């Protein structure tokens, strides 16, 4: 299937979904129930993501938070404004980073990697990951969870 056909198929699906949403919007009871459902699912996604943020999984919590916010922004103006604010901030940081020289970018990325590895080591997560790989050394667990 070519990219053009996939794009046309996606547009047909998108139009159909918007037609269905328009039908729901016409009935105040269904509309209220739909918005409540979107709010409940979005809130649940954000709360689950907030619980997952401190876990040693690489970013799944943040992904779930932003997906929940994106879902809620389809129905709630405040969520749409917050999503635009976050997106604008991300774009500002991305453009600022792109204007840096290669040496500056490499040093910033290196500093972030050292910081992340340091936090993982201090929290003992390096020891957890090492045990998954079958490597058992007490120094992997860091000073807080050392054996």
From TrEMBL:
Taxonomy of the source species: Bacteria, Bacillati, Actinomycetota, Actinomycetes, Mycobacteriales
InterPro entries from the UniProt entry: CHP02611, Uncharacterised_PGPGW_TM
Signal peptide, first to last residue: none
Keywords: Membrane, Transmembrane, Transmembrane helix
TM ranges: 33-53, 59-78, 109-133
Protein name (Swiss-Prot/TrEMBL): TIGR02611 family protein
Keyword Secreted: no
């Amino acid at each position: 299937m070519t990219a053009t056909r996939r794009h046309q198929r996606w547009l047909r699906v998108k139009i159909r979904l918007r037609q269905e949403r328009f039908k729901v919007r016409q009935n105040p009871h269904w509309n209220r129930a739909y918005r409540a459902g979107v709010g409940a699912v979005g809130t649940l996604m954000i709360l689950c993501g907030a619980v997952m943020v401190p876990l040693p999984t690489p970013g799944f919590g943040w992904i779930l938070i932003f997906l929940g916010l994106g879902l809620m922004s389809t129905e709630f103006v405040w969520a749409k404004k917050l999503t635009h604010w976050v997106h604008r901030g991300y774009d500002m940081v991305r453009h600022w980073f792109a204007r840096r020289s290669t040496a500056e970018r490499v040093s910033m990325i290196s500093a972030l990697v050292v910081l992340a590895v340091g936090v993982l080591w201090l929290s003992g997560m390096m020891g957890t990951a090492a045990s998954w790989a079958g490597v058992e050394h007490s120094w992997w667990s860091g000073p807080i969870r050392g054996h």
